[in-house]
Amino acid sequence: MTPKKQKFMVKHSDNAEWTPGLRSDFEYCDLGIKDATDGKFDAHIIRIADKDADHHTGKHAHMTDFQMIYVLQGAARFWFDGEGEIEVSKGDCFYQPDGIMHDALWMSDDCELLEIASPGKFETVKP
Fold first, then answer.
1. Would you call 115 exposed, middle or buried from its count of C-beta atoms within 10 A (0-12, 13-18, 19+)?
2. pLDDT at position 55, please?
3. What is the CA radius of gyration of the chain?
4. Average pLDDT for residues 22-35, to the nearest whole number?
5. How far, in Å, CA of 100 to CA of 108, rounded?
6. Is residue 90 part of a domain?
7. Is the pTM of this model over 0.85?
8. For the chain, which end, N or C, has fewer CB atoms within 10 Å of the first or last residue's CB respectively?
9. What is the reported pLDDT for 79?
């Protein structure tokens, strides 16, 4: 079976649409990568939707082939199994290996994260 050809796409920031996502206190901006790559990859921006909420996500893991986070603005603190707590701020990035247990502990009100993952749809598991 021949794989589907990937499609060219461009997403302009003035047409950004923010929607609820996995967690109600965050909102997500889909960058169109999942559609362009026929689900092989996904890329979106995550930001705080409810500044008064506790942004602690609880321990969980994502079953991925690839997942990286780049901090566009603000700051955040995470816990990773075997690594401990890390704090990141604008311009920092980190790679999450497949299945690593982690927890978002805190995010600044202005925090925006770019997440790129493969496959475009992946399973999230809890301990």
1. middle
2. 64
3. 15
4. 88
5. 23
6. yes
7. yes
8. N
9. 97
Domain membership of residue 10 (yes or no) is no
Domain CATH code at residue 101: 2.60.120.10
C-beta contacts of 20-24 below 8 A and 24+ residues apart = 20/49, 21/46, 22/124, 23/57, 24/49, 24/50, 24/53
In a domain, residue 4? The reply is no
Domain holding 39, by residue range, is 30-125
- The number of domains in the chain is 1
Residue 19, in any domain of the structure: no
The 3-state secondary structure of the chain, one letter per residue? CCCCCCCCCCCCHHHCCEEECCCCCEEEEECCHHHHCCCCCEEEEEEECCCCCCCCCCCEEEECCEEEEEEEECEEEEEECCCEEEEEECCCEEECCCCCCEEEEEECCCCEEEEEEECCCCEEECC
Q: What are phi and psi of 13, to 5 degrees?
A: -65, -30
Over the stretch 3-22, which tens digit does the pLDDT of each residue have? 678 999 999 988 889 998 77
